[in-house]
C-alpha cells in the first residue's frame, strides 16, 4: 500500500504540467462547443498548444474571471455579458491588424450595441430563441405569434425557458417594446401581462426542452433554435416559428480577458476561427449558425437551407440581440421571483 | 408473510437506488442520439468515447485527484478521529464543531473562500489547489466515518495493550488501525466518491491546466449532453463497483 501511494505521488509530480510558456493558449469555453478536429488542426498548422477548460454558464465564467483575474486567454461570453464585462473594464481591446479575416463576418453581426465597432469581441456562433410547436396537436397548430401563447387552449401545454430575460422578451415584444427595455413603466406592463401567462406553463426548462417536446409532455415551447433543430430532426411535425412581433437573438463572442498572457497566440487563434472553411466546419459539426458570411459555400445544402439554423434575411431582421441592462436587472429579478412564486 | 413484505421493501429500496444506473447503462447502448425511444442496439457510443480524448483525459484526471485526495483526507481524518476518540483536552468540542461546520457548509461557500485564500497566497490555480480543495471537502466526512467506528470499540482492549507495555504508537498501529479497517475503507470510498462527483468546489479551485470530468460534463449544456457520456458513466460505475468488491474481498481475507 505504502509503495503504491508513493508511486502515485511520484507519477503525479511528473505529470503536473510545467508553468505556461510560449506557444500555448488557454481557452475557456462551454464544453463540446468547439470540435476537437478544429483545435487539433490549428495546433498542426501553428504549433500552438490549446488548453481547454470549461464553464457551464456565463455567470460562472464571469465569477471565475472576476475572482481569479488571470490564467485564461480567450473566453466566450454571450452578448449581454460582453456588454457587462466591457463596461466593467474586464476585457482587452483586440488588435485588428492581426485579424485579417475579420471582414468575412456578416455585417448584421458586427458593430452591435453591446460592443460598438467590435473593439473587444469577435462573433463566434449565433442563434435565436423562438417558438417550437408540435403541429400534430390542435393547440400547437394554432400558434403563429407570441400573442397566441395566451390562447386558453394552451393551458398546461406550454414550456418556457428558465431564464428571466427570455421570458420577459415574450411580453415586451408582444407589447411592441425592445427586449432591452429598462423603462420601469414598460417593465411593469410586461410583468402584468406575464402574470396571466404563468398558469398555462407546464414546465420551465432551458437545459433540454427538446425532451419535453419529443415526449409530447408539452405541445408548444419557447426554446433555442439548436434544441428545435434536434427535435425537428427526430420528429418533423415539430416546427419552429419566428414570431411576427420579433424575438431574441443570442450571439456568443470570443473575447480576451484582462490578465491574459498569450496575446499573440490568442489573436492567431481568433484569426484562424474567422477562416470560412473553419467556421463552416464548426457550424456543420454543432448544428448552430456561424456569423461568417463567406462560410456558406462550405456548409452542406441541407443545413444551409434549413430556416431553423439559417433564417432568411427578412426573418433575421426581426430579431434583436440581448444586451446587459445594468441596474434594471434587479427589477427583472424581483418580478421573476414574484412570477415563479405565483405558479 | 412478514418475510415477503421485508423482501419486497428491500427490493423497492434497491430499485430506487439502482434504477437510474440501469437506465443510464441501457441508454448507453441505444442507437438513438436524443430521444427516449429505443432505436436498436449499438456500441457506437463506446467507439465515440474511445475517440473522445478530451473526455477521457478529464476522466483520468478526475480519477487521479480522487485517489490522491481520498488518501490524504483519510490519513488526516484518521488522525483527527483518533485524537477526538482517545484524548480529552481543552478545545475538543471546538474541533468537533469545526468538523461539523465544514460538513454543513454549502459547497459554493467552501469553493469561493478557498479561491480567495489561494489567490491571496499567490498560488497558481491547478492540480495542487484542486487537491487542497478536495482534501478540505473530504476530510471532515472521513474523520466522522472513522470516528464512529472508533466509538464502537471495546476500550478494554486498548487498556490491556497498554498494561502489556505497548507504546502509544504501537497501540495505534497494532490495535486501533486493524480494528478500524472496515471504517477506514468506507471513509476512503466515501471521500473518493465525494471528490469524483464534486462540481462546485472544483470549479473554483482548479485552474486552466487541470480540467476534471464533472466540469466537462456539467458544461455541455450549450449543446446538450452527448450519449458518449452515458458510455463513460457506465465505465466509471464498472470501475467503482470493481473497486468496492475488491476492497471487501481484501478485508475478508485479512479478518
UniProtKB/TrEMBL annotation, chain A:
Xref: Gene3D superfamilies: Periplasmic binding protein-like II
Main location: periplasm
UniProt keyword list: Periplasm, Signal, Transport
Keyword Heme: no
Record localization: Periplasm
Binding site for spermidine: 32, 163-166
Organism: Pseudodesulfovibrio indicus
Gene Ontology CC, one term: periplasmic space
GO MF annotation: an example: polyamine binding
Entry keyword Signal: yes
Lineage: Bacteria, Pseudomonadati, Thermodesulfobacteriota, Desulfovibrionia, Desulfovibrionales
Name of the protein described by the UniProt record: Spermidine/putrescine ABC transporter substrate-binding protein
Residues of the signal peptide: 1-20
UniProtKB/TrEMBL annotation, chain B:
GO terms for cellular component: plasma membrane
Record's subcellular location: Cell inner membrane; Cell membrane
TM regions (residue ranges): 7-29, 63-84, 96-119, 125-150, 171-190, 229-251
Any single GO BP term: transmembrane transport
Keywords of this entry: Cell inner membrane, Cell membrane, Membrane, Transmembrane, Transmembrane helix, Transport
Signal sequence extent: none
InterPro entries per the UniProt record, alphabetical: Bact_Polyamine_Transport, MetI-like, MetI-like_sf
Pfam family, one: BPD_transp_1
Name this polypeptide is given: Spermidine/putrescine transport system permease protein PotC
